[in-house]
Amino acid sequence: EKSSQQSSQPVLQNPSSNTLWYPYAQMQNLELNLEVVEANGVYLTMKDGKQLVDGISSWWCVTHGYNHPELNQAMFEQAQKFSHVMLGGLKNQVTESFAQKLVEITPDGLNHVFFSDSGSVGVEVAIKMALQYFFNQGNQNKTRIVALERAYHGDTTACMSVCDPAEGMHKMFHGITPEQFFLPAPTSGFAPSEDALEKEIAHAKTLFEEHGDTIAAVIVEPLLQGAGGFNIYSPEYLNRLKALCEEHNILLIFDEVATGFGRTGKLFAADHTNISPDIMVLAKGLTAGYVGHAATIASTQVFNAFLSDSPSKAFMHGPTFMGNPLACAIGLKAIEIFERDNYLEKIATIESILKEELLGFEHDEIVETRVLGATGAIEVKEARFHHGIQEFAAERGVWIRPFERYIYTMPPYVITPEELRKITQVMKDWFQRER
Ligand code: PLP
Fold this sequence. Notes:
Shape: globular
Helix content: 25-40%
Number of helices: 13
Low-confidence stretches: 1-12
Strand content: 15-25%
Bound molecules: pyridoxal-5'-phosphate
CATH architecture of the largest domain: 3-Layer(aba) Sandwich
């Protein structure tokens, strides 16, 4: 019986759905019952007409809501001029203007923008840039990157090498991806005691003292580790980390793919700190979730290491769609709206509602509830606890997608208090349902 089961072909429960290979999914059992036919504001409309409030902004990127008339207009107007043109050897105004705008709004010292097409590639670019920064100065020893345990930086090869090596979704690739160093994730929260902070930063101090001459860069998701479990830590940790990096000639990379554009309550997580990273990566909210794009922004010090009479010091990277004019036109308009409509105020309201609704919420299954900016998460003891929650939420008009031990919301910023409370209520009702 057993051996015949093992040798038989897998039976596809839903054969019509397996032409399209879905992300992070065991395709053998995949059954998708929700089909989107339209999306407006914070609502996804399903084929059966049902509307769901999007509690996670389509993987955290749809900051301004769906089908935004002004973003549509910006995209349409640009499409009528040219929707794409290569950046190799040709310049164009909208891409130049977007780079200029990003330099204006990002922390001081970040002055040079390299575009690419997704967050993962933006991180790859940052890592490659950090390595070549040292190679260009004749230093071939600095070839290692330091990351935090619980980190998530994307799914491509260099990105996987800096994702959590023990529990992370890419652990099976460790040994194949470049070997890196990991620091324990700081876990003492947004405002740690001095003692706790000293202990956390001591790990970096020891590692840098021992291996600093082989380390090119440290990469972190500043303040909020997202896919690694919504771990919130302090601006002071980052201030201290930067000082240590400077002492040991190590670059500091902020992966703000998830935290950028308001998610932590300020425009960038870096704005909570006193420092600027040497390299910052933006994606997701960069185009308000309209099209894939990323920006890797370097300090003048980093950029200058690539200047030379010799072509060999140039940065040899150039994704086909880098600086895509549609992405840039949408991105420019998205920032204009963010500033004009005071999105930081909207995010502050979201944060206070999330705190009110989630922070005091207790249940035997809950380890901790955490809120920062427009992110609210409930950590449960066991992943199996939330099996079925997606259907439960959808029946009640809410779209959320928990993973591992985390039930969370990262809503679009245009959400109303009533719509947001609907999401948090569904999250809480799940714990209080009759079983
Ligand atoms: N870095 C962080 C912090 C992320 O959260 C993500 C995506 O969730 C990525 C990088 C990868 O971005 P992308 O999915 O656009 O490749």
